[in-house]
């Protein structure tokens, strides 16, 4: 479940800040542009607002020409220096257990993201979903580049993904993606996914210490249980819908199951807040559609699939109902 005002491990923001400064961006300008308090940033164990973290990305974007900064930062991500989540990853008995732990404890690192694992006989994939309103392509670059580095660190040899799929449009620095991942890069996709050969999951950790692993795992479980997960049911439902639209699994029954309640209970809780599931679904789609269009992060023909529509006609009817315009006309009205 995602919090109403999502937070993340401050170490991630601190790492980003220090990386930007190391690449020559003025510390004073970063602080001024982002509104970040340096004293708060230096605190070791607090959780930090995701909205403020995104302001740091936006400041970096305007203060430098380091277009591939997300990739650059992810490439330096070291699981041994990423707190309890990184330690749980590196202490695992094999890569499959390490990946499971990364997914399980991701909430310690950030409230606003969701990772999903899929596997078949040939490959496995990690899909990255993000809470609406907190999207930034540089952050997705960082997550995938960082995950690749964690995998390589664990198995002690260079492995490349089979492919990487990204929801946003092909950026000007797309050549940096090819150089970093060394695999096919697909843009304007329905979801953000990185895929690897399944055989590497069986790689054993030669330094695995079961006693140490259990201590680390117990500590991670305690931290996870202490994170504040209280949230308004409307915000919770909206967040769950937003993360599932592109997968197609967003029926009221599926959302209720994910929230660990019956459909009847979910509808009752929403009714108590003066809302219906259908109204929340509709408003979430509207907000995401307008956000995607304004940001220009993905092609218009991709929008119906990102929002869970079966075809373009259904999406166009809904968009005209929301705004009175077609997507193209709407963009002309705000330019």
TrEMBL record:
Q: Does the keyword DNA-binding apply?
A: yes
Keywords, sorted A to Z:
DNA-binding, Transcription, Transcription regulation
InterPro entries per UniProt: AraC-type_N, Homeodomain-like_sf, HTH_AraC
Q: Name one GO cellular component term.
A: cytosol
Q: Name one Pfam family in it.
A: Arabinose_bd
| Ranges where the HTH araC/xylS-type domain occurs | 235-333
Segment forming the signal sequence: none
From the Swiss-Prot or TrEMBL record, what is one GO molecular function term? transcription cis-regulatory region binding
> Protein name, please?
AraC-type DNA-binding protein
**Which organism is this entry from?**
Pseudoalteromonas denitrificans DSM 6059
């Amino acid at each position: 479940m995602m919090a109403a005002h999502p937070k993340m491990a401050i170490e991630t923001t601190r790492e980003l800040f220090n990386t930007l400064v190391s690449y020559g961006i003025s510390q004073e300008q970063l602080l001024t542009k982002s509104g970040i308090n340096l004293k708060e940033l230096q605190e070791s164990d607090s959780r930090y607002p995701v909205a403020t973290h995104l302001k740091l990305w936006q400041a970096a974007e305007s203060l430098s020409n380091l277009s591939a900064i997300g990739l650059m930062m992810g490439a330096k991500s070291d699981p041994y220096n990423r707190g309890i989540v990184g330690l749980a990853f590196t202490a695992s008995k094999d890569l499959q257990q390490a990946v499971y732990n990364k997914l399980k404890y991701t909430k310690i690192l950030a409230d606003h993201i969701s990772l999903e694992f899929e596997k078949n006989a040939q490959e496995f994939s990690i899909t990255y979903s993000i809470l609406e309103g907190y999207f930034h392509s540089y952050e997705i670059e960082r997550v995938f580049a960082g995950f690749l580095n964690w995998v390589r660190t664990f198995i002690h040899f260079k492995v490349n993904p089979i492919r990487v799929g990204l929801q946003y449009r092909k950026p000007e620095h797309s050549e940096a993606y090819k150089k970093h991942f060394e695999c096919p890069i697909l843009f304007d996709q329905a979801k953000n996914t990185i895929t690897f050969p399944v055989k590497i999951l069986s790689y054993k950790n030669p330094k695995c210490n079961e006693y140490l692993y259990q201590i680390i795992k117990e500590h991670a479980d305690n931290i996870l249980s202490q994170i504040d997960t209280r949230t308004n049911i409307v915000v919770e439902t909206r967040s769950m819908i937003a993360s599932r639209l592109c997968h197609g699994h967003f029926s009221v029954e599926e959302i209720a199951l994910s929230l660990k309640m019956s459909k009847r209970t979910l509808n009752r809780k929403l009714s108590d807040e003066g809302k219906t599931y259908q109204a929340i679904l509709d408003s979430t789609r509207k907000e995401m559609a307008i956000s995607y269009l304004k940001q220009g992060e993905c092609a218009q023909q991709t929008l119906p699939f990102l929002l869970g529509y079966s075809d373009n006609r259904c999406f166009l009817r809904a968009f005209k109902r929301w705004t009175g315009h077609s997507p193209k006309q709407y963009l002309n009205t705000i330019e």
